[in-house]
Amino acid sequence: MMTCKRTHRSQHLPTALMLAILLCWPASEAIGQEEETPDKIITNAQLLGFGAINILDTYLSPEKYQGSELRYISHTIRERPGKRWSKEIMHQGSFADASDRSEDGNELSGLYTLTCVFQRDWSLASDQLGISIGGMTRFNIGVNYNSRNQNNPAQLRLSMQVGPSASATYHFRLFKKAFTARYELSVPLLGLMFSPNYGQSYYEIFSRGNYEHNAVVTTPFSSPSMHNMLTLDTKLWGTTLRIGYLGDIQQARVNGLKQHYYTHGLLIGFVKHFKTKTIQRP
After folding, report:
1. Could you read off the pLDDT of 6-29 as tens digits, one per residue?
2. Strand pairing partners for 85?
3. DSSP letter for each residue of 58-74
4. What confidence tens digit (pLDDT) does each residue in 87-118 have?
5. What is the Cα–Cα distance from 26 to 253, expressed in whole angstroms?
6. Residue 271's closest CA among 189, 175, 121, 169?
């Protein structure tokens, strides 16, 4: 009886194997097509930034605060083969701890920034050099906290900006290794930010509803700012390593108040490349 059962199962094994092969065959063909003709090429970089920051927020204190900043960046570029337009999405989260000249007070700053970029691409020098020009939209939300203040210890950072954006990518070889250098620059031209007036408390704004031009339109004259990033990619230990420099200059002078955030930092992280294809089934 036992021998009969084994023979019965062995007869069904080839049938099951053939069925599995038939089910997997269309998927294998689709994967092969995806590798040959991808719809999108995605480059994603995960970076950590370490640097120095200089903070001034006259709503909290007339003093300038200097310290260190830790920043996380997720930087994604989406391209389509044969197309001349690319999209870029960058998420940034930063935390800074700074002190004044007497070192008897601290100012803490946390900020999340979302940047969306749409650019026209040009390839030069046999695709060795790439130039991209377009526009960007940036959203900021965060908070500053001053340890010395009691009545108004915190300041909300909330703004939206639009402006031009440009980047240049250069591929070259050095010491028989391939490198990719990239520089990005964006300058806000028009924006909208939240700001209390000089001497106005948050209690007046949110509890008593005393609005005093707290939603302010910004221009390069009232808020001259600039974001630039220089990076270098190379293969190392089977992965792509990225190192670079970050310079983030944010300034504003509205409602009788001044604020600035100057960041200069070192970036280090890893880069991954993906290819995707939309499979259309009959």
Report:
1. 444 444 445 544 444 444 444 333
2. 120
3. TTTEEEEEEEEEEEEEE
4. 999 999 999 999 988 888 899 999 999 999 99
5. 62
6. 169
